[in-house]
Recover the amino acids of this structure.
């Protein structure tokens, strides 16, 4: 068989020095993929499946990733599509249900835990209400602390568009935070 | 509006405090993913150490692993064996370096904290908000975007980014790259993707690839056809189509291979898999 053909059909991980390449990516970026999937609307019950899906695609395509974009941008591109698929399936099942379950740190007081869980519910409500484009920019900027050029790279939008989407998303979050604070005062 | 107000920032930080995966999440998903792609499942030292911290028994650790209800029985068994086995042996250390890449990359940004996935109570990262320019003219051009790669881990056993690979990264495909979730043009709309169907796709393509390696191109074609019928709009459609080109090359059917490659390029003009075609008999330079 043609050597080039043989080379071309190798498993993605085989094109690298060691299969540990995939393991390294998994270990280094698992948390990012997990957070991204959750914040882009994948429900808790489907999180395991969604994150697995992302890494299955990563394994398939690793040999084709050449590092001209950051690995986080590349992973985000995969995660956003997987999250979209999962959201679509969920929407068919139960529209409007907002994920509110999840992890609560065991090292915080019950009061803090309750406050954090409530804040998280508010954040998820807010993210659910945003359109995909603004949600992605808000998540990457405010929750992942990525710079505007990095976000542009990850989302395929130009930097001006990123700023514009972020401006709108921040305004909406301010409104959400103000309502939340007002509700707290009343309670 | 340039940054969030302290009130909004506090709400965000509070929400973020509970948004990290646990060590159990990491280990559970790792066991499933590695089993699915056919890699040896690393012994989960973290499970042992986290469990030890929490005073758990090995039985309860297995219960944590067994929590993955969506996995097929075989995957479950693999996971349980791997994790429970790792408790005793601890032969593979992965968590020590976990997050190094993210941390290394983040040093390039000011005030960029590392994601501490394993901390039981992860402190929310300090914000380094994107400052929106007052006018759009102030916005940096996209071309100035830093191209970063993950910092090598101290072990440096492997590099996730092969320097010689000339493929176009997916994230630069514009406006919206055709991607794994997109249906193949001209084929039926995709059925809902699930982990099990993705796994099934993966298995079929692996079989086809193995057959091709062995020189059994007939079996490879048959398996690819099975993939086409069972997963017409599957996640790995692009891979299947590229593989078919390679099989045609292996059979000496260069004209057919070129025709298929041409259609592929037309359907996926920016596909990162183009590199595989280029190195085959259907490469555009041949």
């Amino acid at each position: 068989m043609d050597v080039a053909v043989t080379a071309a059909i190798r498993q993605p991980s085989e094109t690298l020095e060691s299969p540990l390449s995939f393991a390294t990516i998994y270990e280094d970026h698992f948390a990012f993929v997990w957070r991204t999937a959750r914040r882009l609307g994948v429900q808790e019950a489907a999180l395991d499946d969604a994150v697995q899906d992302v890494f299955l695609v990563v394994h398939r395509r690793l040999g084709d990733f050449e590092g001209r974009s950051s690995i986080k941008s590349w992973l985000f591109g995969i995660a956003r599509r997987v999250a979209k698929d999962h959201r679509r399936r969920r929407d068919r099942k139960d529209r409007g249900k907002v994920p509110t379950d999840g992890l609560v740190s065991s090292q915080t007081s019950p009061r803090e835990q309750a406050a954090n869980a409530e804040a998280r519910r508010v954040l998820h409500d807010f993210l659910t209400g945003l359109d995909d484009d603004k949600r992605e920019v808000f998540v990457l900027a405010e929750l992942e602390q990525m710079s505007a050029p990095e976000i542009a790279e990850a989302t395929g939008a130009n930097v001006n568009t990123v700023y514009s989407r972020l401006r709108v998303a921040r305004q909406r979050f301010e409104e959400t935070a103000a309502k939340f604070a007002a509700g707290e005062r009343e309670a | 509006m340039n940054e969030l107000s302290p009130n909004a920032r506090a709400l965000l930080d509070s929400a973020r405090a509970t948004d990290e995966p646990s060590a159990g999440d990491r280990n559970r998903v790792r066991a499933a993913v590695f089993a699915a792609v056919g890699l040896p499942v690393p012994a989960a030292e973290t499970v042992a150490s986290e469990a030890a911290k929490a005073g758990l028994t090995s039985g309860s650790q297995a219960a944590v692993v067994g929590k993955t209800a969506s996995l097929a029985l075989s995957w479950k068994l693999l996971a349980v064996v791997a994790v429970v086995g790792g408790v005793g042996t601890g032969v593979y250390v992965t968590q020590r370096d976990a997050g190094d890449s993210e941390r290394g990359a983040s040093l390039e940004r000011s005030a960029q904290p590392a994601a501490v996935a394993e901390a039981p109570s992860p402190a929310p990262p300090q914000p380094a908000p994107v400052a929106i320019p007052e006018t759009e003219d102030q916005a940096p051009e996209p071309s100035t975007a830093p191209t970063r790669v993950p910092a090598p881990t101290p072990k440096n056993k492997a590099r996730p980014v092969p320097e010689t690979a000339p493929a176009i990264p997916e994230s630069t495909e514009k406006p919206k790259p055709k991607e794994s979730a997109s249906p193949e043009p001209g084929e039926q709309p995709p059925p809902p993707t699930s982990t099990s169907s993705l796994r099934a796709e993966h298995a079929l393509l692996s079989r086809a690839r193995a057959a091709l390696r062995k020189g059994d191109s007939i079996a490879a074609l048959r398996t690819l056809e099975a993939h086409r019928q069972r997963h017409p709009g599957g996640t790995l459609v692009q891979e299947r189509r590229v593989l078919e080109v390679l099989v045609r090359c292996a059979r000496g059917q260069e004209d057919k291979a070129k025709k298929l490659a041409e259609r592929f390029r037309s359907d996926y003009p920016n596909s990162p898999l183009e590199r595989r075609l280029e190195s085959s008999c259907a490469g555009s330079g041949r």
User: Anything to note?
Assistant: Confidence is low (pLDDT under 50) at residues 1-20, 95-106 of chain A. Chain A touches chain B through 114 residues (CB under 8 Å). The helical segments of chain A are 3-8, 20-39, 44-61, 71-93, 110-129, 132-143, 148-155, 159-186.
